[in-house]
């Protein structure tokens, strides 16, 4: 399984534009919330990887009505979607579930923003963080020829007999070779932490010291292994920092993958995680 992604576009989408996930409209900044009647037309619906303009009615802080329009795809009851309100350099993101459907539109409910189930890790798993300095992130952003290659030996057909499953992110340059600067950067370990929980979209890890970052990008390359009785999963992936917490002398890193895990891969891994 190989997937090539434009690295510049992905970094712009995930890192340059700040995404804030909220569970209610009243969690918006007060000035935006007060001006919501004028901003409601700016909401976009993310569906099937595409963005669609919406015509919305606010029923309450957690329920809305989407009117059917010629450009909007047909939505089904129970589907989980994202509503996005772009504002300046921030995108306010609401995870929503489609409820009742009628001839004119769809009732939707805003859900808890932690959209992916988190599995807590029972055994001690070390996470090795390689730091990607801002100048390198900036060079990746400014050069559209860089490609992110996500490579894995995982397939549903091969999975039952595989003893080692790997999932790696690699950076390809304009000549389609692995970038030399990238190779050097990922050989250096910046910090080592312990995996706490894990989801399709990212993970949390704790570091046994207090760390303060002033980096505007917060991009890292992480390596860790998940060992099971008859299989081992080896990860080496790009992540970006979503949040930092401090407690009892530890720093808690909340990370998001630059590209989330594929659904079939996650389901296979989740089954092992929940039965181990």
Low-pLDDT parts are: none
> Which sheet architecture does the biggest sheet show?
8 strands, mixed
Percent in helix: 10-25%
What letter string, H or E per element, gives the SSE order? EHEHHEEEEEEEEEHEEHEEEEEH
Number of strands: 18
What is the count of distinct domains?
A: 2
Strand content: 35-45%
What does this structure look like?
It contains 6 helices and 18 strands. The chain is an alpha+beta fold and 276 residues long. It has 2 domains: 24-110, Thrombin, subunit H (Beta Barrel); 119-275, no CATH class. Strands 2, 3, 4, 5, 6, 7, 8 and 9 form an 8-stranded mixed β-sheet that branches. It comes from Caldimicrobium thiodismutans. This is PilZ domain-containing protein.
